């Protein structure tokens, strides 16, 4: 049973991690454009430290959180039967597959058509090999991400969720009879990058199954709150160490193990935020725009960064840092406002492309 407080805390998790996703995608300081490299690779130590801390440490909590939440919501109240499973698949077809298909179709169309317009062609370099091929599978692969990222590459997360929903019966059996060894194996596959399957990825299987385990057992998503203060206290030094040793050979073990602690800390942090009614109401209100911001931020973010690297003088010591910090926030604000406009002008179309969210 999800009580009122837990429901509000879950809603608090919808929007802030989306901002993290944008910062992950804004990490690089150079962009290939029309055969040249835009931006600067010689950024200073302060800029590099802040970029790594935000994009490679703090923002990386977003993906595990979303998979954990998706698994929990899928399996909460889950009483196994063929009818229940098919009902779950029907609802996920609307909320996952239709938006996944439509957004990839839109991006594929833009990318391919851009090859006929020399003025915009350099902004979509991935379109050249697609436009040159006459292989139907290449287009299907670009749409669905069967052997690669989808053409709307950030939609890999939705692709993995679709696979995980289809695998729900297998997950139920494994968690019922071999939960502990399963989580141990998945953790090792994740931290050693030895998972052999393209989709779903190890991070999705691990954290989706973690949420599923809590849902199946009837536990709260916030069952680990008793460890929350300790996890919150430990998260900052872990992230600082993660930033300092970001390129070290052992960092993947530090980083990914640290993410588990940081997920516990993030879940607990919602309890602290929920105490402030005004702030929590504001974040919850923004949650209604989260899927749209996530889906629409690319290729918009890439285009804005490309234009900025072309036309903004990059000679200042902290210009790249300023652009890195500001551009994702500008894109978020623009897309939130666009969502509000679409909700007024064409709510049914918006409902379709966001999966009824």
Can you offer a commentary on this structure?
- The two termini are 22 Å apart.
- The chain has 16 helices and 2 strands.
- It has a two-stranded antiparallel ribbon with strand order 1-2.
- The protein has helices at residues 4-12, 16-25, 45-58, 62-75, 82-114, 127-132, 136-144, 156-166, 168-192, 202-216, 228-244, 251-274, 277-287, 290-311, 319-345, 347-353; strands at residues 30-33, 36-39.
- The chain has one domain.
- The protein is mainly alpha-helical and 357 residues long.
- A hairpin with a 2-residue loop joins strand 1 (30-33) and strand 2 (36-39).
- Helix 3 (45-58) packs across helix 11 (228-244) and helix 14 packs across helix 15 (319-345).
Q: Could you list some keywords that capture this structure?
A:
single chain; 357 residues; mainly alpha; 71% helix; globular
């Amino acid at each position: 049973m999800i009580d009122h407080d837990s429901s509000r805390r879950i809603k608090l998790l919808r929007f802030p991690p989306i901002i993290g996703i944008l910062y992950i995608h804004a990490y690089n300081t150079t962009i290939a454009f029309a055969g040249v490299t835009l931006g600067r690779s010689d950024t200073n130590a302060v800029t590099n430290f802040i970029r790594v801390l935000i994009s490679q440490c703090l923002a990386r909590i977003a993906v595990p959180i979303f998979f954990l939440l998706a698994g929990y919501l899928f399996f909460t109240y889950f009483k196994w039967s063929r009818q229940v499973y098919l009902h779950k698949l029907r609802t996920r077809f609307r909320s996952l597959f239709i938006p996944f298909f439509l957004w990839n179709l839109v991006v594929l169309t833009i990318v391919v058509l851009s090859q006929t317009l020399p003025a915009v062609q350099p902004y979509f370099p991935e379109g050249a090999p697609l436009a040159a091929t006459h292989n139907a599978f290449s287009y299907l692969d670009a749409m669905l991400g069967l052997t690669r990222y989808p053409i709307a590459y950030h939609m890999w997360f939705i692709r993995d969720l679709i696979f995980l929903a289809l695998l729900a019966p297998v997950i139920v059996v494994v968690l019922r009879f071999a939960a502990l060894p399963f989580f141990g194996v998945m953790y090792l596959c994740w931290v050693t990058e030895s998972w052999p399957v393209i989709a779903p990825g190890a991070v999705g299987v691990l954290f989706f199954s973690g949420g599923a385990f809590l849902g199946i057992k009837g536990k709260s998503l916030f069952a680990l709150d008793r460890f929350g203060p300790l996890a919150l206290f430990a998260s900052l030094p872990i992230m600082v160490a993660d930033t300092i040793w970001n390129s070290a050979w052992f960092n993947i073990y530090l980083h990914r193990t640290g993410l588990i602690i940081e997920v516990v800390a993030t879940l607990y942090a919602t309890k602290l935020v929920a105490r402030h009614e005004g702030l929590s109401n504001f974040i919850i209100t923004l949650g209604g725009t989260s899927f749209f911001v996530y889906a629409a931020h690319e290729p918009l973010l890439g285009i804005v960064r490309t234009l900025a690297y072309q036309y903004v003088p990059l000679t200042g010591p902290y210009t790249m840092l300023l652009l890195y910090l500001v551009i994702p926030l500008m894109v978020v604000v623009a897309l939130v406002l666009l969502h509000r406009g679409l909700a007024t002008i064409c709510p049914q179309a918006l409902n379709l492309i966001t999966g009824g969210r």
